[in-house]
Specification:
Elements lengths: L1 H6 L6 H31 L18 H6 L3 H15 L6
Helix pairs in contact: 2-4
The structure holds zinc ion.
Length: 92
């Protein structure tokens, strides 16, 4: 499914346009989860280990990701959010 989307042979089809839209929605949701996590990490000064990513719920297989409770890609997002929060970019 995911691979078919990337080949783009049917990029003008409504299915493809839906896929692009849902991908954007998913990214927004992941970003919101990452920001949520970043605030919790800053508030509690701790992270909890998990076998599934807090952001995207993907099964985590490497021990470093499990100890963070985030996949590598999502952890990058969380770190960016923490940096943003610390820079006061999200100040209400
Ligand atoms: Zn994730």
């Amino acid at each position: 499914m995911e691979n078919n989307i990337e080949t783009g042979d049917w990029s003008q089809s409504p299915v493809m346009q839906n896929a692009a839209r849902s991908r954007a929605t998913r990214l927004r949701r992941l970003q919101a989860r990452a920001y949520d996590a970043a605030r919790q990490i800053l508030a509690t000064d701790s992270i909890s280990s998990s076998k599934h990513c807090y952001c995207c719920h993907k099964l985590l297989t490497d021990s470093l990701s499990v100890s963070r409770g985030f996949g590598v890609v999502c952890w990058e997002r969380v770190l960016n959010c923490i940096a943003d929060i610390k820079a006061d970019r999200y100040a209400a």
